[in-house]
Write a structure and sequence with these properties.
The chain has one domain: TIM Barrel, CATH 3.20.20. 19% of the residues lie in helices and 20% in strands. The protein is built from five helices and nine strands. Strands 1, 2, 3, 4, 5, 6, 7, 8 and 9 form a nine-stranded mixed β-sheet that branches. The longest helix has 10 residues. The radius of gyration is 17 Å and the shape is globular. The termini are close together.
């Protein structure tokens, strides 16, 4: 469909098992549910039904079925839920990652922890156009704008940069742009990008 990578979001349940879901907040995906995914046991999460009545995809199955594809896995966790940060290292982490999968996050601490666990893993720092206007956690840790991300990346020359394509300050860095809107690629310059990520597949299908 024109994207080089598909982005998946990694959250976890109350027993630490990983799942592919955009938010821990259940009501965002399951209107009849309240609370958060990490408050439910694995058995209950497995019974949830989302888009078109399909069950959630577990992280384990995502690696099994799509380990050969180019995937950008965002460490989502509790971001945006107005709760305190919980490390993904406290969860049931896979023992290995497919060689063509990337771990990304708006939180530099996530990437430092990932490098400690998997030294050869490719990691990437995310940034967004309105990054500084929202908080990742209850402690008011902001999301990163493009300029803020570049400040962090000065100390991490081996990290990739995954900016939203609408906010890309000039930088001589390897960068893979992302977009929530499949039509944005037609409205913004892609000069300097080495690839594109989408996490909104329905838009891409509609726009072609």
């Amino acid at each position: 469909m024109g994207a080089d990578f598909v982005e998946l979001d990694w959250v976890w349940d109350g027993q630490g098992q990983g799942w592919i879901c955009h938010s821990m907040a259940l009501e965002q995906h399951f209107p009849e549910q309240q609370g958060f995914l990490d408050q439910l046991p694995t058995q209950a999460v497995a019974k949830l039904r989302g888009f078109l009545g399909e069950p959630l995809l577990s992280l384990e199955d995502a690696i099994l079925y799509y380990g050969h594809r180019a995937v950008n896995l965002e460490i989502k966790g509790l971001k945006g839920c107005q709760r305190e940060r919980v490390s993904f290292l406290q969860q049931a982490c896979p023992k290995y990652w497919p060689s063509n999968w990337w771990l990304s996050s708006f939180d530099p601490l996530d990437l430092l922890e990932a490098e400690d666990r998997w030294p050869n893993l490719q990691v990437a720092l995310l940034s967004a156009e309105r990054g500084a206007s929202g908080n990742q956690y209850l402690d008011s840790t902001p999301y990163l704008s493009g300029a803020q991300a570049l400040d962090v990346l000065e100390a991490h020359s081996d990290w990739w940069w995954h900016p939203e394509i609408t906010d890309r300050p000039d930088a001589q860095r390897y960068q893979i742009g992302w977009s929530l809107d499949g039509e944005q690629e037609h409205r913004h310059s892609l000069k300097g990008l080495q690839g594109l990520i989408t996490d909104h597949l329905d838009d891409w299908f509609k726009t072609g």
